[in-house]
Amino acid sequence: MTDFSQSELLRAESYINGTWCSAANRFEVANPFNGEVLARVADAGATEAEQAITAAQQAFPDWANHSAAERSSILRRWYDLIMARQDELGELLTLEQGKSLTEAKGEIAYGASFIEWFAEEAKRVYGDTIPAPTADKRITVIKQPVGVVAAITPWNFPNAMIARKAAAALAAGCTFVVKPAAQTPLSALALAELAEQAGIPAGVFNVVVGTDSKAIGQVFTQHPQVAKFTFTGSTAVGKQLAEQCASTVKRVSLELGGNAPFIVFDDADLDAAVAGAVASKYRNTGQTCVCSNRILVQQNMAPAFIEKFSAAVQQLKVGNGLEPGVEIGPMITADALADVEQLVQRAVAAGAKVVTGGKAENSFYLPTVVADVTPTMALAQTEIFGPVAPVLTFNDEAEAIAMANDTDYGLAAYFYSRDIGRIWRVAEALQFGMVGINEGLISNAAAPFGGVKQSGYGREGSKYGLDDYLDIKYLCLGGI
Ligand code: ADP
Fold it and tell me: Which residues form a coiled coil (predicted)?
């Protein structure tokens, strides 16, 4: 294990304009597994948020004027440095977030893959020529970076939620200011350290760390110099921040909550469906916005599915994320644990049945399967954000689709079937931004990540991801 007291990757100050900035107060960042304090971090607020935006504004013209090839090679260096330090970054992430070391290292590689991807895409910001309606004119379209981007990110992916946004923004020629979640600022600050080592110029990538998220959020969403605001987090907070952005007509991307259905039809490969459900439900201890939130199983398959699924869930190893073989880490906070506990208790009181798990142990909630869940229970309607799988049943395809779509959310959905006609029908009918078909893990840098309905708008990754950070400009050349 790394001795972080000797490592330049453990930083405890905001990174603004290429400088590590102290503050009057400090707050503790603790390991969710045992509460051990990892760092006392300078608590930045509205003033530092403004300084960061000013720095980003001043750095913008020069960064935008770098050639695409120059930006690309700097981003590529950042990617290389991150991957060279993957093990340490993974450990740091497990320490502050709790997820297993395997998943943490996986997140570092996943986050870095967006930097690699957009280093390549930076070179492909093509414009367009359009036939003009009259002979004396020419129409050209160019794409230009929107300007300063402000971002707010959550604690469940402390590295990747930042990398995914910053990579696209910087590739497009924008400058970037991010406020990570106060529970997990260390991975963000380590990214800043490596950004500096990679040669990203001062002011281009800034990290403002503080506990007063409201005050920082107000500056990010209302500052006239911020052109674009991007947020990943809860739907409630996202709605509020989008509203705040309206007064200065910022461009906004929102990646909000989900309530992912995982549908198992009676023609599915049962073992594949069980493996997919375990992977999709229990990764990151169930604390992701694309985790399966409702397992919908065709009635005649339900007994066999529940038996195999709960047997697989019982095998999951719970413990300190740093220990080899551990798959389920602690919940991020005691409050998060209590929320999950309560959701299960309410479902049981309403007639649901715990098949396995169903209780808390220290900072953990045991991997849980709950059967006999009905669509009206809070457990089926709420984003659970914990290692609990509610199982509901349906009779036919139409009912499955209606149940799956019966939510305000529209982020990810999954289904298992071997019937090609059904696969097309269901894939098209699901009102979700991403659909896994016979697949429980779907996210990668080449694919567009994002939702519909109240799960937000905008796409991250893929060939579409740069569009969120580019303005289209139409040039009309006359007098020819
Ligand atoms: P989560 O359930 O993931 O904690 P939140 O939406 O509460 O979801 O948090 C996501 C991010 O939004 C975090 O960085 C958090 O600090 C920030 N945040 C929470 N409330 C506000 C707010 N009122 N204004 C600005 N940022 C906020």
Answer: none
